[in-house]
Design brief:
This protein has 401 residues and is α+β, with helices and mostly antiparallel strands. It is built from 15 helices and ten strands. The protein is 44% helix and 22% strand. It starts with a helix and ends with a helix.
């Protein structure tokens, strides 16, 4: 080890090069020791790693020095009636925010006592949108027209690169001499970003060859990936899913210590009017809280919480209470690839019955989307109920704030 440390300090060896010289475990240990000596900070907790390093250093993380541990709690069980998620589930939530798990747990209890959540997938579409440069607006129009007439040819080229991805739509958008081609794919049980990027490259080659337009970037930001965007809120990205539940007036009173009128008013004045006044693209109480906690627990890409935060929460009056619902138009999730193969994350996916590929393909990812949506519904109910009853500050004082 000392010889490698000496070479690192001299600059004759790069941190990333260790992986080709020693085992993954040794490489992680040497890098961490080097960082400890360079910074003067000991990192014993960072070095406590149980996940399989061979896969991680090859597929998930470069220059690895250890792992960051996030507390994992569980809420539920919560009953749901989805097309894919049927029955009661415990929800894994990785978080450092005191009161979050307790809040979601209360919402889960309310949903189950009310007979369970209705959950449905409305769309399945992972996107990539290459941007092309044309010579003039006339050339741009010619390109757009060619694409409209040759969608099958473009789709066939894209699908040569994947067994699991299928082109479901191709749309064009333009701005001056820039043309954006938004390709939409179903991606089976994968979240699918890598899959659609590779497929879109092949499609872009065909478009460029046949139209004479120059490919500028495989991602032109009309996708839109990991950024808040109205196009994702309107057209959807990943899985588009809604969950809802009916609560009687008595259940609202018993569980949330408030009444239906107060919860409806909080929802309207906070989630809808307040969000509109602020120019927010999300119309919800704290959907990203639950999405982030479940994403971290289940090996999803945490950056896609941005798309998940576009959630719309509504509460409608009924003859005897309320019908509360959440709509997540853009929820990129998968059960294969990425962080889903890591030990702790795979355990959480197994707890939900969605680890690995489903039968038929895509069923596990859709089931996970339904479960996440139900968790968001639970969190929204609990927070809106707490705010309607003026209990929010007290809960945070008691549970970790």
């Amino acid at each position: 080890m000392n010889s490698y440390l000496t070479r690192l300090k001299e600059g004759s060896l790069k941190l990333y090069a260790l992986d080709a010289l020693v085992s993954p475990k040794e490489a992680v240990t040497i890098r961490r020791r080097y960082i400890e000596e360079e910074t003067g900070v000991q990192m014993p907790h960072t070095g406590m790693v149980s996940i399989p390093l061979e896969d991680v250093v090859r597929k998930n993380c470069e220059n690895m020095i250890g792992a960051v541990q996030v507390p994992l709690g569980v809420a539920g069980p919560v009953l749901m009636h989805g097309e894919y998620a049927k029955g009661s589930f415990f929800l894994p939530l990785a978080t450092t925010e005191g009161a979050l798990v307790a809040s979601v747990n209360r919402g889960c209890s309310a949903i189950s006592k009310a007979g369970g959540a209705d959950v449905r997938i409305f769309a399945d579409c992972m996107t990539r949108a290459p941007v092309f440069a044309t010579r003039s607006v006339i050339h741009a129009r010619e390109m757009v027209d060619w694409i409209a007439d040759h969608k099958n040819e473009i789709a066939d080229a894209a699908q040569q690169t994947t067994r699991h991805g299928k082109v479901t739509d191709i749309e064009t958008y333009h701005a001056g001499t820039s043309v954006y081609v938004r390709l939409c794919f179903s991606t089976g049980d994968a979240m699918g970003m890598n899959m659609v990027t590779i497929a879109s490259e092949k499609a872009a080659e065909v478009i460029s060859l046949k139209t004479g337009a120059r490919l500028i970037s495989l991602s032109g930001n009309v996708c839109t990936d990991k950024k808040p965007a109205a196009i994702n809120m309107i057209l959807g990205r990943g899985r588009s899913v809604s969950a809802g539940v009916s609560l009687s007036e008595q259940q609202v009173m018993d569980i949330f210590k408030t009444d239906s009128k107060a919860m409806i008013e909080v929802s309207i004045r906070k989630n809808l009017v307040g969000s509109a006044r602020a120019g927010s693209l999300g119309f919800n109480a704290h959907a990203a809280n639950i999405i982030a906690a479940m994403f971290i627990a289940c090996g999803q890409d945490p950056a896609h919480v941005v798309e998940g935060s576009l959630c719309i929460t509504t509460i409608d009056p009924t003859d005897d209470g309320i019908y509360a619902s959440v709509t997540l138009p853009a929820l990129p999730v998968g059960t294969v690839g990425g962080g889903t193969r890591l030990g702790t994350q795979a355990e959480c996916l197994s707890m939900l019955g969605v680890a690995g590929g489903g039968d038929p393909p895509g069923s596990h990812a859709k089931k996970l989307a339904e479960i996440v949506a139900t968790g968001v519904l639970a969190g929204e109910l609990s927070l809106i109920g707490a705010q309607a009853a003026q209990h929010l500050a007290r809960a945070h004082q008691e549970l970790g704030r």
